[in-house]
Design brief:
- This is Recombinase family protein.
- Keywords: DNA recombination, DNA-binding.
- It comes from Rossellomorea vietnamensis.
- The protein has three domains: 137 residues, Rossmann fold; 94 residues, Alpha-Beta Complex (Hect, E3 ligase catalytic domain fold); 160 residues, no CATH class.
- 50% of the residues lie in helices and 15% in strands.
- It is extended.
- The protein starts with a strand and ends with a helix.
Length: 513
């Protein structure tokens, strides 16, 4: 018998309950039998939980795998259940799948179980079928988006229908933590101490903790959990498909799984990594060592040699200007105990808490002042835009609208920092922040934990071969976590060829302290 492929697509999790895959398989096999074709089990390609409306054909992995298999085997025949399983965009199946195959396999035969004749993209009936399925999807999509917006705009803190996040169950439309909530907390805790997402996935897989899919943990799964605000008790929706993009956010809509501190520390650590380099590096004092003789930053160097057939690895901190190098093991043995001893004594003092509270309060006041200035700038830009509209000055109106968006974006950034400050202040008042270090310093530390403690508490280390190292600790650890000089400001958003009055307005509003 002639071999053929079969393709099955299930578009959503809801179809798992209606035996969609089994129904499609049965129809495909029966159709193949009538046509005198053989479709082995390994030739049945299943695309699970994949939309053919939101994803064009070349974004569907299994469809592209089918395409490659047909090219490799030169088997020209494939059977679909119906046109809707091929495509709901009306055109990408033909562009991304059919036409490229047709060039290499001229006798390609694409069948659907509802027709005895092969699919022909130039056939009017086939064109109409694809267009009708696209229209059907558009109607469903618009209806779903409309219902979702209507639900969200009632301001009810109940979750609209969607997939329940890992770590929660749903009781009367309200999310309630379930037995997997501890795994979510563990993921955030590891991430807050610099453990990479790939490493977290490996740890969970090796511990045989089931993932949301029931398979091995993937880095992307960890990333999705860490980026989801639902775990802090926030219900957040961003609707892309409405005519105007809409965002909805409801705080305290359900019980949080993680405390906000863990979430904010993860973001802070990411910023520290951008500034000082990797967290999982063996060079614990990377970008924290300054030559006491020439004031240059020491760089790192990896070296190796082989003696008697055995390879030996060497790692050094190097001053290129003074031409000396220091072995990392020797240096770490000197500096790390001093650092940990300092941290242990600092976190128990009342002075540290008072200094930190004062800094955070000052930071919060600066944020509020900048937000108020930006809100005033928005009012002025909006006023200019209204005048421009009345005068029919399109260029000025567009420039004013651009500035308004820029200022709103800056406010969003400042509000983000304000949330971080609130979490850190709360952690200080409750001693959760101090307890975090007490608990950790009593145990053996991983590389990322040592590295983060250094980044939090060490400002600089002056060093040279002839002088003892001089550790300069941060007077206030939050200066490293939230440096005031890095606070986002609305500066430099000048427009090319913009009207003079908007330029003047922007100059006035850029004087934000």
């Amino acid at each position: 018998m002639t071999l053929a492929f079969g393709y099955i697509r299930r578009s959503s999790y809801k179809q798992q309950e209606n035996n969609s895959v089994e129904i499609q398989r049965a129809h495909i096999l029966e159709y193949a039998r009538r046509k005198g074709l053989s479709v082995p089990e390994e030739f049945i390609i299943i695309e699970d939980v994949t939309s053919a409306y939101n994803k064009r054909a070349n974004q569907r992995k299994e469809l592209m795998r089918l395409k490659e298999m047909m090219l490799e085997t030169k088997i020209p025949t494939v059977i679909f259940y119906e046109e809707s399983r091929m495509d709901r965009t009306a055109y990408t199946f033909v562009l991304d799948f059919y036409r490229p195959l047709k060039k290499v396999i001229p006798d390609i035969l694409v069948y659907t179980t509802n027709s005895e004749n092969p699919f022909n993209p130039d056939n009017e009936q086939n064109k109409i079928a694809l267009l009708l399925y696209r229209q059907e999807s558009e109607i469903k999509s618009n209806r779903a988006v409309g219902n979702l917006i209507a639900h969200l705009e009632t301001k009810e803190k109940t979750r609209p229908g969607s997939k329940i996040p890992y770590g929660y169950k749903q009781v009367e439309k309200v999310l309630v933590p379930n037995e997997d909530a501890e795994v979510v907390t563990f993921i955030y805790y590891l991430h807050s101490w610099g453990t990479s997402m790939g490493k977290i996935a490996t740890i969970l897989t090796e511990a045989e903790i089931p993932s949301p899919s029931g398979k091995a943990w993937r880095t992307s799964t960890i990333e999705n959990i860490l980026k989801n605000p639902v775990y802090t008790g926030i219900l957040k929706w961003e609707i892309q498909k409405s005519k105007t993009q809409k965002k909805y956010e409801f705080k305290d809509s359900h019980a949080p799984i993680i405390e906000g501190l863990l979430n904010q520390l993860g973001d802070i650590n990411t910023q520290l990594q951008r500034k000082f380099g990797r967290l999982d590096t063996p060079f614990l004092f990377l970008n924290k060592l300054t030559c006491a003789d020439c004031d240059d930053k020491l760089v790192t160097q990896n070296g190796s040699t082989k003696r008697n057939g055995i390879s030996y690895q060497y790692q050094y901190y190097v001053c290129r200007n003074c031409n000396y190098k220091l072995a990392i093991d020797d240096l770490h043995e000197k500096l790390l105990p001093q650092t940990l001893k300092y941290v242990q004594s600092l976190i128990t003092t009342e002075t540290m808490k008072t200094t930190a509270e004062s800094y955070l309060s000052e930071f919060q006041q600066t944020l509020k002042k900048n937000i108020a200035n930006l809100e005033n700038s928005i009012d002025k830009a909006r006023s200019k835009g209204c005048i421009a509209k009345e005068q029919g000055d399109i260029e000025l109106e567009e420039a004013a609208a651009f500035l308004e968006l820029k200022y709103k974006s800056s406010i969003d950034n400042l509000v983000y920092y304000s949330n971080i400050v609130d979490e850190l202040k709360g952690a200080l008042y409750s001693s959760a922040f101090i307890h975090r270090f007490n608990h950790l310093l009593d145990t053996s530390l991983a590389i990322t934990e040592k590295r983060l403690i250094i980044l939090y508490f060490v400002d600089d280390i002056l060093i040279s071969p002839e002088k003892p190292p001089r550790l300069i600790f941060c007077e206030n650890l939050f200066e490293q976590m939230l440096p005031m000089d890095k606070l986002p400001k609305q500066i430099g958003n000048r427009l090319d060829k913009q009207p003079n009055n908007i330029s003047e307005l922007e100059t006035q509003e850029n004087n934000i302290s």
